[in-house]
Amino acid sequence: MASRGQCSPVLRVDNVGKIYGPGCPYCVELTGPEHGRNVCPKCLSIVAFHGISFELFETEVLGIVGESGSGKSSLLRCLHLDEDPCSGSLYHKEVDNGRRDLFTCSWQQKRTIRTRLLAVVYQSPHLGLRMGLTAGANVAEPLLVNHHRPNFGAIRARVMDLFNRVELPTDRADCPIRSFSGGMQQRVQIARALACNPSVLLLDEPTSGLDVSVQASVLDLIRRIQWDTGLPVVIVSHDLGVIRLLTTRTLVMRFGRVVEAGLTDQILSDPQHPYTQQLVASALT
Amino acid sequence: MKRKATILSVRNLKKSFKIHLLGELTVNTIENFSFDVDEGDFAVLVGPSGIGKSTVLNCIFRTYLVTGGNIIYSSRDGSQLDLASCDERTIMRLRNTEMAYVTQFLHCQPRMAAELVVAAPRVAQGLSLEQALQEARELMERMALPRELWRAFPATFSGGERQRVNLARALISKPRLLLMDEPIASLDPKSIATVVDILKEMRQKGTTFLSVFHELGPIKSLVTKVIPLGSRSLQDLEANQRKRNSGSPEVTFGR
C-alpha cells in the first residue's frame, strides 16, 4: 500500500447542491438545520443538500453520517454521477489533471468515469445489481462495458478472481443472484464495484440491514480491501459504530447541510453541534 | 547542564464543554493550564479523579477541540506546530508518523484478529502486511500475550489482555511522542515489569512520554517530571514524596 498523506486530493467536491422540485429564490435561505426542515415553505421543493464541499485524499476513509432524509444518499448518487446536481462542481485527479468539472462531461464520458474511476455499493442490492442475471454476470458486466474487444476467457478468470477476493464460493457464480442471501449479495456488489480497479469507492450504508455477524464480516472485507489497495473510500452510514471503526474523518449532515466536520474520534468524543451531541448521546454503544 | 529541547509546550490551555441537550450547560474542565515537556522526558500528569488529566491528553491528540490557549509541538522536521489550531490533515500526518496515544479502553473493529489490530498502524505507515504482522507478533511475544490469542478477536479478551493489545498497537509505530492514559491499570505485576522494560528501551531510543498514571509506584524509576493538575494535588504530592523519600527519581515540578 502506498504511504499515506499525499498532497493532491483524489476527489474534490466544491459547493455541491441539489434541489428536487421547481425551486425558488428562497429555497436555500428557508431550509437547513436552523429552520429544522429541508422542504422550502414557499415552493415546496426539497433541498436534498446544499453547499457541500470536501476533499478526499489518497488512502483515506471519509465517513458521512446523518439521519434518514439528511441528504447523504442523494449526495452519494451525485458523486457517482447517477444524478446531476443543481449547483457546484466535482473534480477527479485523473480526469484532465483535476481541472475538468465531472458534472459537465457528456453522458458517454460519465459512463466511462463511472465504470473506471468511481465504484459504488448501495444499501439495497436491488439498486446495484441486475436481479435477472447470475452472480457472475453481474460482476462481469462492468468488465464487458469497459473492454472494446472482450476476451471471454479472461473476463471469466477475472470474475473468479474477484469472487475469491470477496470470499464468495466460485461454484455459485452461475446461480441467479436472486438465490443469494443479503450478505452474499453485498459481496457480489463489492466484487462488481472492484471489477475495473476503481480509484474511489463509494459505499452507501453497505452493511445496514444485515445481521451483526454478517455485518462484521462485510466490514472486515472492506477493511481488507482498503489495506490491500489503499483505495480511498467515502462511506455513508447512520451507524456510528461503523463510522468509528472504518473512518478517519467524518462529516455530519442534517437537513441537507454539513453541520460538523472533523477527525472521527473528535466528532464522537467531543461533538460540537447540538445535533451531533444528540446523535452521539443516543448511540447504543 | 545542557538544557534539552522542548518538544511540547502547553500554554494557558482552556477546555470547556457546552452541552446543548442540557440547556446549554457549560462544563469547565481545564483553565489556564501551562506546562512544558522536554525531549526525552517521561512526564506524568497527576491529580485527583475528574480533574481533567485525560482531557489534557485528548486536547493534545485532537480527540477534543481546544477552547483556548496553545499547544506548541516541535515536530521532527523542526517546525513548530500549534496542535490546538493546526488543520486536520496535519494532525492526521502527525498521528501517522510521530504521535501515538494509548487510550484507556481499546476500540477496535469486531472480528479483527489481535495481531491485525496491532499491525494496523505499521500498515498505515506503508509497511507490507507480512512485515507489519511479523513486528506485531514479536511485540506480542515480548508482552507475553499468549500465542493462541494472536489470531483471536480482542472482544473476547480479559481486561489485561485488551490493555496489552492497546499498548502494543501504540508502541509498534515507535512514536516520537507517546501519550498514555492509565496504560497499566489492569495489568499484573509481571506484565507491568515487562511493559516498564519496553518503555525504558523506547525512551533510550528517543521517545518522549506524557502519561496519566493512577499509581506512580511501578513506574517510579522512569519518571523524570511530574506535572500536577489542580491546586491541591501539588501539596499532596510533595507530602507523599517526603513520606516515601528514599531513592526516588529526580522530580521536577511543572508550574
How would you explain this protein's 3D organization?
The complex is a heterodimer of chains A (285) and B (255). Chain A has 285 residues and is of the alpha/beta class. Helices cover 35% and strands 21% of the residues of chain A. Chain A has 10 helices and 9 strands. In chain A, the strands form 2 sheets. Chain A has a 6-stranded mixed sheet, sandwiched between helices. In chain A, strands 2-1-4 form a 3-stranded antiparallel sheet, with helices on one face. The longest helix of chain A is centred in the C-terminal third of the chain and has 18 residues, at 212-229. Chain A is globular. In chain B, helix 6 (189-204) links the parallel strand 7 and strand 8 (208-212). Chain B is globular and about 50 Å long. Chain B has helices at 53-61, 88-97, 114-124, 129-142, 159-171, 189-204, 231-244, and strands at residues 6-19, 25-38, 42-46, 68-74, 80-82, 99-102, 177-181, 208-212, 225-228, 252-253. Chain B has 255 residues and is of the alpha/beta class. In chain B, the strands form 2 sheets. A 6-stranded parallel sheet of chain B has the order 6-7-8-3-9-10, with helices on both faces. In chain B, strands 2-1-4-5 form a 4-stranded antiparallel sheet, with helices on one face. The A-B interface holds A 1-5, 57, 216-217, 219-220, 223, 227-228, 244-246, 248-249, 262-263, 265-266, 269-270, 272-274, 277-278, 281 and B 17-21, 58, 62-65, 88-89, 91-93, 96, 107-112, 123-126, 129.
Secondary structure elements and pairings:
The complex is a heterodimer of chains A (285) and B (255).
Chain A: E1 11-20, E2 46-56, E3 61-66, H1 72-79, E4 87-92, H2 107-116, E5 118-121, H3 125-128, H4 135-146, H5 152-165, H6 182-194, E6 200-204, H7 212-229, E7 233-237, H8 240-246, E8 249-254, E9 257-263, H9 264-269, H10 274-282
Parallel strand pairs in A: 3-7, 3-8, 5-6, 6-7
Antiparallel strand pairs in A: 1-2, 1-4, 8-9
Chain B: E1 6-19, E2 25-38, E3 42-46, H1 53-61, E4 68-74, E5 80-82, H2 88-97, E6 99-102, H3 114-124, H4 129-142, H5 159-171, E7 177-181, H6 189-204, E8 208-212, E9 225-228, H7 231-244, E10 252-253
Parallel strand pairs in B: 3-8, 3-9, 6-7, 7-8, 9-10
Antiparallel strand pairs in B: 1-2, 1-4, 4-5
